Structure formats: C-alpha cells, structure tokens
Amino acid sequence: MADGVVGIVGAGIVGLAVGREIGLRRPGTRVVVFEKEDRVAAHQTGHNSGVVHAGIYYEPGGLKARLCTRGRGLLRDYCADRDLPYEECGKLVVAVTPQEVARLDALHARADTNAVPGLRRLGPEGIREVEPHTTGLAALHSPRTAITDYTRISESFAQDIAATGGQVRLGAEVTAVRPDGEGLRVVAGGEDLRVDELVVCAGLHGDRVARAAGDGAAPRIVPFRGEYMLVRPEKAHLVRGLVYPVPDPRYPFLGVHFTRRVSGDVEVGPNAVLAFAREGYRFSDIRLADLGDILTWPGFWAMGSRHWRTGIGEMYGSLSRRAYMRAARRYIPDIGAADVVRGGAGVRAQALDRDGSLVDDFRVHRFGRVTAVRNAPSPAATSCMAIAEHIVDTVLGESSRPPA
Fold this sequence. Notes:
The protein has helices at 13-25, 63-82, 98-113, 124-130, 150-163, 206-212, 288-295, 298-319, 321-328, 380-396, and strands at residues 5-9, 30-35, 51-52, 86-87, 91-95, 120-122, 138-142, 146-148, 167-170, 174-180, 183-188, 191-195, 197-200, 220-231, 242-245, 257-260, 266-269, 273-274, 340-352, 363-367, 370-375. By secondary structure, it is an alpha+beta fold. Strands 5, 6, 7, 14, 15, 16, 17, 18 and 19 form a 9-stranded mixed β-sheet that branches. It has a 6-stranded mixed β-sheet with strand order 9-2-1-13-21-20. A 3-stranded antiparallel β-sheet has the order 3-8-4. α1 (13-25) crosses α10 (380-396). The longest helix is centred in the C-terminal third of the chain and has 22 residues, at 298-319. The protein starts with a strand and ends in an 8-residue tail after the last helix.
C-alpha cells in the first residue's frame, strides 16, 4: 500500500523499527504507533542486557538465524551513522564439564552453518588469552558479538518516524480493535483512529492485543522475570567482554552470564523465574488477571510437569544471592556473592504453545489486515531492523527495498 494509515501497537524496539521501515519504504503512508507507557522502550527493550548477538545459537534456516545475521549488520551501520554506541567486545561461550564440551561441539557446527563471523574454538590457554580470569575446558570465541544501548536506538527510531510524518502516541493504551469497512478502528488513550493495516508488536501483552484484533488464543504469553546482579566496581575489571555458559538445549534461555555494558558496568544474569505479573519486575509484584492467564492455560501445566525441578532451582537462586552466584563462579571463580549487589530486572514475554512447548523461533502471524508478532524474544533487539523488513514485506505485499 502506497498510501493510507498503518497502526502499530507497541513502542518497543521492534514496533519502532517497523514504523521506521514503513516510513522509509512508503513515504505516502502515515504511521501511528500506540504506546501505553509515557516513554518508548519501557519494558523488554529497556531492560535487556544490551547484547548484539552474532547468531551462534539459532536453528539454521529459521527466522532467528536469518534475521539475526542481517539485523546485526543493519544495526551496526545504523549506530555508526547516528553516532550511537556499538562496541564489538566479543563473547566467550564456555564449557566447564565434558558433557558441556560435547554440547559446545554441536553448537560450533550450528554456528558455522549460520556463518557466524570470526568464530573460533579455544582450549584453556586460549580462554585465558581472551578473558584472563575465566576458566573452562573449551570455549567458542565470537569476536564480533557487540554491546549497545537499545533504549537510545529506540529513541532514534522514534525520531525517524516523526521525520517521515509519522507519530508515536505515548500514554495511548489500545483497549479495542474493531472492523471498519475494509480497515480497522483502533481505540487507544480514549480516542479512536481508523487504520488500513495494524501491526501488533505489544511484547508482554502481544497475545491479548492479537486476540482483541481477531487472532486465536495460541500461543499464550507467560512472563519470566530475569534478575541481574551488578559486579562491584573493584571487580569489574575481571571481565573484558561477555562470558556465557553453554546453553541447555531444552530451554530458549541462555543461562546466567557475565555482560559488560556500554556504561562500563558489569552485570551477572539474567536468571529465568516465573513472574506473577506481566510487568512483574519484583518478586512481590502479583496481578491476579495475569496470574489467571497463566494458570488457565493448559500449556502452563504441561510445561510445569516437565520442568518443575528447574523452576524450583531458579526460584531458589532468585531468593539467595549465594545460590545465584554458585553457577556463575564456575566461569569466573574470583567473582562471588560478596562481589555483587542486586541490580535491575527485566521480564521476558515467552510464548507458550497449548502443548506446553516453549516457542523458540520468532513467530509472526498474518490474519486479515493484521500482522501480529506472537513471539519475539532474544535476539529480537539485535534483529529488529531485519524483523521490520520481514514484517513490512508482509504488510506491503512485496519484497522491494528502498535504494541504499
């Protein structure tokens, strides 16, 4: 569509990237982004670890693998063009047991298929050359893995939308979506607007908004809180870049890791604890409607029956700083419970299918004049500009790109 109005629900980095892409691709189209908070990047985008992933983990051929590879390059170029922070500090994925070495070998083969740039396998001496205070039997070193500031990128995307005649409406929570002729009428912030197309990028509330727009119930969003520890300044120099464990293939989470931020701070985390509210950044945050959504979803009980032991372990680590750091010390023994303080937390919008499967890949569903992002976990921030291309190709019904 060359003209008309496209509404976007959610001013996280994915929704803003989509709005920006539409504005660039079709200047005659008006973009309106609806955001219930008083700022952009208020939830997942503004609470993540700031890592720009290189594509090590993702199933070859899947959306994550394809869009992470392209998205990383687009994001790097965008940050250079806008003078935004982008530091290729590199990452180690470290195996500390023989069982993890076998999983590391499988991960290496996957990363090679995904053409991760500069990747190399290291032994114990090579690990110490990259991260002198890290121990392990073997590791993968990804020198092109980077760190950035996704909140600043989101703010820049919002400025781009305004520059192409679009609008980001803050404090505009979408409460209803109704058919209106060949388009839709969106009720948000006490006002309503007719749109020709709607793109739902509502993150933690993505399933609810998608259902309101006419989509099915599955998958359901189940919130997982990820809590961080902050390494005390006197120990921060022990971490040069990023140090990750070998992920457990049963889960779409990457495990507790050490992350250097563009601010110079070093964080440990996040864990993955079931949250009792979709915006449950604290253990005490409980919202009955959100809890009801979790407990009435058959997939939750199916998942719980398989993984309850892991869930109890994560909860124990959430309550005990010593237990939290026990796993992290396997990689950097010189940073223990006394060397960290509790930091911030984020909440991951994890999609869960009816059969209890944790949805791993990005999931985008098109129905009528609505495109709904039903699952966009990490590396969605890395991939945001490529996700935007993918979605806009769907919305506009073509694959053309603007001239470089």
